[in-house]
Amino acid sequence: MTTEKKVVRVNDVDLAYVDEGEGDPVILLHGFPDSSYLWRHQIPALVEGGFRVIAPDLRGFGDSGKPQEIEAYGMQTIVNDVVALTMKLGVKRPHLVGHDWGAAIAWMYAFLMPRRIDHLAVLSVGHPGVFATPSIEQRAASWYMLFYQFPGVSEELLRRNGWRLFKEIIGRDGDHDRYLRDLARPGALTAGLNWYRANRSPAAELRPSRPFPPVLAPTLGIWGDGDKALLEEGMTGSGKFVKGPWRYERVEGAGHWLPLDAPDQVNKLLLGFLGTERPAHEERRPRRRL
User: Fold this and answer.
1) I need a surface site. Which of 75, 137, 226, 229 has the fewest CB within 10 A?
2) Which residues form the AB hydrolase-1 domain (predicted)?
3) pLDDT tens column, 173-196
4) 261 is a catalytic site residue
């Protein structure tokens, strides 16, 4: 994908983004350590399907700004980035599609901004309410989140010996070669790790849990049976947090990076889902009193 990115300033950070096509808007949100490039197989398919596709490099990634403070990466801040982006681009109620951290942001956006979302599709990562009390099996699978918590130390160990440890964690998955180039940019590795430090630190589990508002949007959850980082329980358990129509799809033979591992299947699922259910909130005219 060689699409030229545009840049907009929101919440004191510059966000680079792709904006293609016409029609109902779809916003694609990537995770760690990706950028909008993750969606290179989905963007043309969705554009051809009649959608306007907006894919930002979220703060800390790609060509977007990379604040170095941990507190700059709280979930609420990043949701506010997405809301501000929609407002800047004149988008009132988009479809939202997220993968990895992008899925976590999409979930939060959906239950905090129910009148500003149409359909929700989440890949690999289930509702934060499920992840708030992970099983010991899930804790073991996501051990790296704990390793990422040590500022300076994590960065040094990941870079040591030609990024050996990082390569062992990622394996041959995703855009593994591209990640090394992207994370070598000034401030990029710390910015990416700060997503985990701001939102998945052990101390975060000690905070009093608040009830999550229900997700009212029609929601599609997609999980690959080869995902080594996130277990299926995270996605299958998400339905209880969705008050709108809920659908779950298990993709055989795909790992964590579903948009890359199974692009045709993901495209088919998205095109068959977006816009097909009744939106969470339809515009209603107030009744006239006689």
Assistant:
1) 137
2) 25-263
3) 999 999 999 999 999 999 999 999
4) no
Q: List the catalytic residue out of 127, 148, 196, 261.
A: 196
Q: Which two tokens stand for residue 266?
A: 């993901």
Residue with token string 């989140």: 145
**Half-sphere exposure (Cβ direction) of 14: Cα atoms closer than 13 Å:** 8
pLDDT at 60 over 60: yes
Residue of 95, 99, 119, 256 marked catalytic? 256
State how far the Cα of 69 lies from the Cα of 72, in Å rounded to an integer. Answer: 5
- CA quadruple 50, 93, 17, 182: dihedral positive or negative? negative
Instruction: Out of 24, 81, 100, 182, pick the active-site residue.
Output: 100
Reply yes or no on whether 256 is catalytic.
Answer: yes
Contact 247, 221 (CB under 8 A): yes
- C-beta separation of 76 from 197 below 8 A: no
> How far apart are the C-alpha atoms of 129 and 10, rounded to whole Å?
28
Alpha carbon 38 to chain centroid, angstroms: 11
User: Any alpha helices (H) in 36-100, and if so which ranges?
Assistant: 42-48, 75-88
**At 242, is the secondary structure helix, strand, or coil?**
strand
Question: How far is Cα 101 from Cα 111, in angstroms, rounded to an integer?
Answer: 16
